[in-house]
Amino acid sequence: MQSKLVVQGLSHHYPDEYTGEDVHALDNVSLDVEEGIFAAVVGPSGCGKTTLLNILAGLLPYSAGHVKVDGADVKGPGPDRGVVFQEHAILPWRTVARNIGHGLEIQGIPSGEREKKVQEFIELVNLTGFEDRYPHELSGGMKQRVALARTLCADPVIMLMDEPFAAVDAQTRITLQEELNRIAMATKKTTLLITHNVDEAAFLGDKCFVFTRRPGKLKATIKIDIPRDRRVWKDLLHDPLFIERRDEILTLVREEVSTHGDD
Q: Quick check: 171 and 179 in contact, CB under 8 A?
């Protein structure tokens, strides 16, 4: 299976904005995400997860190593990578439909084709009937569905997600996790998710990259071979394989916290 994301020997240092001291955020990280795979990244706070995502998104230059998406070096932001941020990064002056179609407008897609594709993604994320609403009229969960649909509608090679459900309540988070799993089945989009939530990583990931405490290194890669059509919370809560994989990931993360202390 072809890898859509390849990271080799990635390291990153940056000066602390308050002390000026050198911060070693990532150290010799190598990983790959194959086409159609949903990968999750977990680790203790301060281990460089978000730094990694910002590098992959092209928002942050890195100190050493190589990052390739679909065989091309990452040297800055590009349409081959779509990012869903923790905050609802949608445009407040645009309706749901116009937010979702924003990337297609930038690409110069004709209006008829654009409207058809936007409607497909509105239906995919269960926002039918809300096409003409503005962000201030939506709940937090609905705003994040808009952000997700906008990213997918632009059809990037890989979707990068930075704690996308951290700002919503627990029940909404569960619902959005199940919806994201359904969307992953429907689109088969290659995805990398950054999360602090081990349950979320095990529920959504085909594989999970576990990082050490800072400087972040790849400690382990855990494969989670649970068919997507079985990934419903009421069933997985009692599924032996899910419990085993989740506890394996949790143990690896806790080792870092208990041994070294959480940053």
A: no
